[in-house]
Amino acid sequence: MKLYGPSITSSLTFVLLNIRHIDGQEGNKQHSDSHTLIYITSGQAKLDWNESPPCSVRSGSCFLLAPGTPYRFSLEDGQAVQGYEVMFDGIRMLETRHAKGQLRRVPASFPYEGEIFWFERPQIREMLNRLHAGRGQTDERQELRRQRLFLDLLDHIWEQLGNTEKAAPSINPAIQRSIHYMEQQYDQELTREQLAQVADMSPGYYSSMFRKETSKSPMDMLAEIRIRHAKQMLVTSGSSIRDIAQLVGFSNQYYFSTRFKQAVGLSPTAYVQRNHEQGIANSLQYTSYLRSSFSLREREAEEPQRFVSLFLEDHLTVLGIKPIVQYARSGYYQRYLSSYLDGVQKLDVSHMDFGLLRRMRPDMILLGFADFAADGRYEQFAEIAPTYVFQRAGSDWRSTLTSIASLLQREEEARQAIKRYDEQTRLARQELAEMLQGETVALLRFHFREGLCLYGGSGGYSSSVLYDDLGLKMPSLLQEWAHSGARVVIPIKPETLRQLEADHLFVIVDDAQIEQARTLRQSSLWNELDAVRNHQVYMGTTDIWMTFGMIAHERKIQHVLESLRSHRGHSYGNQNLKA
């Protein structure tokens, strides 16, 4: 980037000019006096630009071209290449010291040209989708927000470029391209031949070049990437080791465990145990100054306390505290808390507005998932207020409530709440045992991402309430899966429902699966199920059943009791009619 002398003050910005879909069946020569950002969403082609050797592009490829740079796609095997083309200008405002107040605007360049590696594809793609959807805004404030989103996109890319420079400043571009492909496709079965094809090299030459550039083999690099993702999943997902091995691309658990121990020095099981023990300590370390420099009781006389507790609003409500914002994500929020949080503004974490959060002036921020603080966001939270991150808040709601109560000096409120819940659960358990007489209960969800799923095993947001707190009986199939170490959330095919043989079914349908649920419920397979024929299917809502917290669990128990009481009353009525 050009540096200006000491006699000049400058500021740099960029302006979005246009975004359009790339959607073609054949190559097309392009030329512009503005910067060009190219992002490919599907298809495969060769990209020829600036007299450089043509590069293979596929879904997830991203290029940034300098002003005036022509480019051309050469399509392969008649495929259409699709994606986005973003045009933007750079502007630098100059003010000379001998002429204060007189500004001069000059063109400016983005300090990079070429392919962008190691970026977070989902985040960039989501930003581009939103920019494209917002075209043609006539409201000036909406257009201002769109320009701000574009600057966030450029800032995110700039950050990734910094990571690239630190990670591999001189790696061959073709090798970089194959490493980027590993980062995006690590969960798939990948071979040396596939990776060599991505790099446009023969397998033998690719291996030789890869080792020369990185000092390791392609497959060793792939294993490192997989293990890095596995480490994160082991301490945040709650999935079994076998499931995680498959999710990150290992063919079997034994090979995964062997490679994991070679790389980390601990077995996966020992790694989970160590990080679980250190979870709270790590969270406390984030804000170690809380205890010494931030006394809530000292400030109670000054003003009401202002808390942000993203996905932990349930816990604060139990403790008698009303947060100043409520977690939301793309329209979803915990509606069951509406009566408690009337008038509380929603904060969409998928498009985190740190400016809004700063204006709310919170005294403390509690984050229900470690992911909320990832990718540099923790520092942004911590700049606003002391921030506490819970790494495994959903694994044990009682422990989480107790930890929050200790932090906020509301220990007695937490003890009384847990005592009240345990008594309610005891009474409900007795009533259900008398009511069901050993009949089986299962929870079925039409999951927005996984499709049709059963919930079983120990732990989780719902299974712990149904089978641990209420002592309900699992169907035999779920018992077998639980004993074999199956994960809590089990994707199934519709045909598996025939083997389930559940007497009672609780069903949750995510918004994105409404049509799929309607199709299944109209099928003969569904209507032949015993629970359906006996009218023992009960519909629930995602916001209650797919979250943790004492109030949510109380609502689950209430839903189970009301559903089964209503059904029993209906059955008794039918028997009386027959009599």
Key terms:
579 residues; alpha/beta; six-stranded antiparallel beta sheet; five-stranded mixed beta sheet; 46% helix; 19% strand; disordered N terminus; disordered C terminus
How many distinct helices?
24
Q: Supply the helix-strand structural class.
A: alpha/beta
Spatial extent as radius of gyration: 28 Å
The major pleated sheet works out as: 6 strands, antiparallel
Q: Summarize the amount of helix as a percent range.
A: 40-55%
Question: How confident overall, as mean pLDDT?
Answer: 80
Q: What fraction of the residues are assigned to beta strands by DSSP? A: 15-25%
How many E-type strands? 19
Shape: globular
In angstroms, what separates the terminal alpha carbons? 89 Å
Q: Stretches where pLDDT falls below 50 for ≥5 residues?
A: 1-9, 163-169, 277-304, 570-579
